[in-house]
Amino acid sequence: YTGRLASDPLNVMTVPETEMATGGASNNSSRYGDYNQMGVDPVDDCTFWFLGMYNPAGKAVRIASAKFDACGEADADGDGVPDDDDLCPDTAPGDPVDANGCSDAQVDGDGDGVCDPGAPSGGPSGCTGSDNCPDDPNPGQEDADGDGQGDVCDPDDDNDDVLDADDLCPSTAIPESVPTSGILKPNRWALVDDDTVFDQAPPQNGSKFAFTTLHTGGCSCEQIVVAAGLGQGHMKFGCSNGAMKDWVEQVGD
Fold it and tell me: If we measure between CA atoms, which residue out of 129, 147, 162, 2 comes closest to residue 68?
C-alpha cells in the first residue's frame, strides 16, 4: 500500500510503498479486485483496514491495517500532547512540556519557581504556589504590607498611599504604636486605625487642620518624632499640632 498526504503535490504519493504480505499462488480468473476491500476505522477515523485474497499456497483472506504517521489525534502546537489533553495550547516550537502540555514559560513567566496565578500545571521544572508578582522574579514572595502584591512589583510596599519613589518613610506601620500610653490626647495626632488619615482625640481644637500620609510624605507620627528629634511626649500622647504643621511644611519645601 501507499498513499498521499494533503501536503503532497497532485497525482504524487510520497508515502513509501509497503507490502503487507507476499502471496505465491495464481488467480486464474485475474479478478483480484473482486476479493479486496478497504475501509476507514469509524473509531479513530484514521486507521485503514484492508481485507484481500491471500494465496500462500491455497486461497485465504488476509486482514491488515495501516496508519500514516501524520494521522492521529490533533496536536496543533506539536508538543506531543493531543489537543484534547493539552492544558496549555500554543506552546512555542521546541519548548519542553510536562504531561499536561505546559512549558515552563506558559506557567511561570518570570522563571522564579512560583507558578503564575491560575497556572493549570507545574511545567517541566515543577513550579508551585501562586506568584504575587507574575511578571517579576520574587522567589521569596515578600509582601511587607500584606496586600497580596509582592514587594518587587508593588509600587507602594508599605501601603501608606505614597508611592515608594516619593516615600520619605519606608515601612510605615498602620496603625502605628503611637500613642504608647494608649491615650491620644486632645490636639495630638497619630495613625491609630487602619487608614492613612491621622486621627485626633476630642475636643479636637485643631480640627481646622487635617493630615494624611500624603501630607507627611508617607510618615507616621512615630517616624516624624524620630526624624525630627522630638521629645518622648509625642510618642506617649501623639504628635502636637505644631509638630505636624512643621513637618508638613518641611516636606512641602
Answer: 2
Question: Which domain covers residue 185, as residue numbers?
Answer: 155-253
Above 90 in pLDDT, residue 75? no
Whether this model's pTM surpasses 0.85: no
Beta-bridge partners for 3:
15
Rounded to the nearest 5°, which phi and psi values hold at 222?
-55, -45
User: Comparing C-alpha atoms, which of 28, 77, 76, 27 is closest to residue 53?
Assistant: 27
- Residue 161 sits in the same domain as residue 251: yes
Whether 80 and 55 share a structural domain: no
- Of 128, 154, 180, at which residue does a domain stop? 154
Count how many Cα atoms sit within 13 Å of the Cα of residue 150 in the half-sphere of its side chain: 19
Decide which of 72, 91, 119 is a domain's last residue: 72
So what's the pLDDT on residue 56?
60
